[in-house]
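Annual report, structural modelling task.

Input specification for the zinc ion complex:
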Amino acid sequence: MTTTANAAICRGHDHPFTIEPVELADLAADEILVRVVACGICHTDLAVRDAQLPVPLPVVLGHEGAGIVEAVGSGVTGTKPGDRVVMSFNSCGTCPSCDVDAPTYCYNFFPHNWSGTRADGTPTMRYKGEPMAANFFGQSTFASHAIAHDRNTFVLPSRFDGIPLDMIAPIGCGLMTGAGAVLNAMQVRAGLPIAVFGSGTVGMAAIMAAKIVGANPIIAVDVNDERLALAKELGATHAFNARDDAVGKIKELVPQGLGYAFDTTGINKVIEDAWNLLAPKGICGIVGASDPADNLTFNEAAFMGGGRTVMGILGGNSDGAPFLLELLDHHLAGRFPFDKLIGHFDFSEINEAIEASEAGHVVKPVLRISAE
Ligand code: CXF
Ligand code: ZN
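The model returned the following structure:
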């Protein structure tokens, strides 16, 4: 039986999102119908809107969804109607990366997340009777209802009942990306210095995680003084404005060099500066979306001689449910206060939420789509 949903349709940069009725397909065996309670807005949604990523337009975006299960496909065993769930990116489950629990590097990432259809090419959504691009990150949760999958839908254990779904929603992308870079990918060590370039959701999550592991000092770098003040509240020991010789100040503070430099900006010059600040054995982690034509230049002798690492990191090396639940446990224990990043908007205010994010007024906008 098809389901009617209200979805925010994205037609590109020069068009506002419009909320309109769509039809969701019958569930395939591995699929889960979710009533969406809330969904975070991530820069990747906006990169698709701006045609910077190869996702077909028009499309229904949204990939930080949380909600309540309404129905499950015939092959789904771990999830049932009524479950509170959070969704994340999708993956194939059978490639060499998925085999070693590294699904953010799924060999089949594109067909499962960005093709606009199911991986087999069939549509999950119709608009006025015609196929509509959806299944974005295996969810498309800028909508009242979404078809998600067994592999990217995680039931929330009852210990998290006290955290509203409109807080939990962004754990499945931006927060896991920053925290996972520190905890899983770079495996930041206690007592070593880290600098985090960019204080958006990903940078802030990295700072909270750096505090969890006891990195010291923890240096936040950004151009926005309000964000720098929040970074200090969340765990940064020092905050430098990038417009005010941040590089010189880091050299002065940590003359032996950084153990870790983490770039969330994707700006070539920032990454090269960050890399040049590394101590021997230092790691420069890169997650920022950069111009696809950009190349980085590093000095070969310093690279090899100091045993330095440049590490590209996707999705914080998250392995799905285990990592997301670990982060929520940190939150329950008061060590990962990501609620301080969130600003809520009604679903009907999706365009205002995007504007607030792009103007830098809100770190992580979350849309409230239905009552929990
Ligand atoms: C993604 C990138 C690929 C792995 C999961 C997270 N980022 C989305 O914004
Ligand atoms: Zn994202």
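The chain has a mean pLDDT of 97.
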